[in-house]
Amino acid sequence: DEFTEIQRALNASKLFKVLPSDLGRSISDLKLSVDIPNLVEKINIALEKLTPSSMEIQDSEGRWYTMSINLYKTIDNRIDGATLSFIDIDQMKRAKEAASGRLAVLVDQSTDAITIIDTDGKISAWNRGAEDMYGYAEGEALGMDVSKLVAKGDEHLMAENLAKVRAGQPVQPFRIRRLTKEGKTIEV
Fold first, then answer.
1. Of 157, 154, 136, 149, whose CA–CA distance to 178 is shortest?
2. I need a labelling partner for 140 at 20 to 30 A (CA). Which of 5, 69, 156, 183 fits?
3. pLDDT classification of 64: cutoffs 50, 70, 90
């Protein structure tokens, strides 16, 4: 009905700054206040592949939304275009960013050694606890192959667990002997 169409136009105008008179126009004809790179191309891909898609976007005021591109089907089940829907995820996104920041500080300040090793066996994160335990400063450790920290005879344990990670399998806690910068063997 007419009220529903006006309400839709008002909601869209907040995000896209469109007018009720813009209803029915192609999205490519509108000047949007939201930066969505290659929007028309993304819509065309969804239509060609018959696959909906979604992505997180940010408006000009910095608010976050999940934008979904869905196929529009007619009553006789024929694809006749695409619809865009937006869900305001700003509060959730900001809460997640704040929690990530708090977690990063907690990890960095922890007295426990916390490291992140990528699937190639390279160290990509190293906290103060790891510096204290192994003797390497963060700058020395980042990018280092973790095998440099593994004691002779335990190389297979690290290789097996890295293979599991690469295969998407869970890794259970395990004991391994590691080497410090000074060459001392420690069990972790």
1. 149
2. 156
3. confident
Instruction: Say if residues 93 and 64 touch (Cβ distance below 8 Å).
Output: yes
Q: What is the pLDDT of residues 41-60, one digit of tens each?
A: 999 999 999 999 999 988 88
User: Quick one: pLDDT at residue 131?
Assistant: 95
Amino acid occupying residue 88: D
Closest CA to 118 of 82, 77, 161: 161
Three-state secondary structure along the chain?
Answer: CHHHHHHHHHHHHHHHCCCHHHCCCCHHHCCCCECCCCHHHHHHHHHHHCCCEEEEEEECCCCEEEEEEEEEECCCCCEEEEEEEEEECHHHHHHHHHHHHHHHHHHHHCCCCCEEECCCCEEEEECHHHHHHHCCCHHHHCCCEHHHHECCCCHHHHHHHHHHHHCCCCCCCCCCEEECCCCCEEEC
